[in-house]
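Box 3.1 A note on notation
Throughout this textbook, protein chains are presented in two layers. The first layer is the amino acid sequence; the second is a C-alpha cell string describing backbone geometry. Keep the layers aligned when reading.
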Amino acid sequence: MTNLRIEDHVWHIILNTNANEKRCERSWRPVAELLERRNIRYELHVTHQPGEGIKTARALCESGIRHLVAAGGDGTINEVVNGIFSAGIDTREVWLAVLPMGRGNDWARTHRYPKTIEEVVELWRNGNFIQHDIGCVRTGVHDGHPHSRYFINIAGFGFDADVIYNVTNDPPKLFGLNVYALTLLKSLFSHKPTHIQVSADEGFEFDGEVFMVIAAICQYNGGGIREAKYAVPDDGRLDLIVVPKMSIPKVLKHLKDMTSGDHIDKIKEIRMIQTTHADISSEVLFRGEVEGELLFPGHYNIELIPNALNVLTNL
C-alpha cells in the first residue's frame, strides 16, 4: 500500500457520457461541484463513443500525464486501462482512481468502494493505492494478426461471453426490467457446452466440454455475481476457474451459490488454479469477453502482469 498526496497533482478525469444509460453524464454536475469544494484539481475529458476512452487515456499518457481517473462503469475502467497499456510507457508510473458511476460497478465491489460518490471522493483524498495486477488476453485469429486486450477485473469465456453477445445483439424487449438478468436466463437455455483444451502453469491441463472458464484478478462480474471469491488484486496470481459442462437443473440448483461465490467449494467438478499464464483453444467458436467487451474469437493466451499499475483501493 502506498499513500499519495492527491492535492499535489492535477488529475485527468475521463468521463464516459454513455455509462449507465447516459445517467453518468446527467449526474456529473454535482460531482464537479463536490470536487471543487474539496479543492481537488482536475481536468475533464469527455468521451461519447465506444473506444474513445482508450484513445484519450493513451494520448494523455503519451503526453506525460500520469494521474488519471476513470468516471463511469466497468467498461470505462477497462478502456482507460487499455489506453494506459497501449501508450508504450512504464505503467508503474501511472496512478489511477475510479469514480464508479456505472450500473454494475463490479470492479469497485472487490475494492470495497463506498456506495456514494461523496464517500468515494473522501476515499480518494486519503490516497491509498495498491500496485494492481493486470491481465492480458491475446487472441490468435485466422487473419494471422494477434489481437490483445488488457483487463483489470475478469475475463470470461463460454457462457459468460455468450451472455454479453446476446445482450449486445439480441437484448430482451421488456423495458424497465434488468436486461442482463433476463439475457442470462435466456442464454442459459440456449447455451451449448463447447469442447476445449485449457493449459496453465504447474502442469494444469483440462480437455473436455465446459460451461465456462474464468480468469480473475478481482472477484465480481455480471452485476454482482461473485465468480472468483478467492481472487486478490495484488497477489501476483490469476485465479483460473474451469466450470465443466453442467445440466440446466444443476446450474439452477447452484445459482445462489454462484452469486455468493460458494460454487467453487460446493461443485466438486470445478477446477481452479492460481497461475500467471493460461492457454485456451478449441476447434469451434468459443467466445470470450473482458469487462463486458467481446474479444475476437480464436485461441486465447492469457498472461498476468503482476503489480503493474497504481490503483486507488479501500482494502
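Residues 135-305 form a domain with the Tumour Suppressor Smad4 fold (CATH 2.60.200.40). The mean pLDDT is 90.
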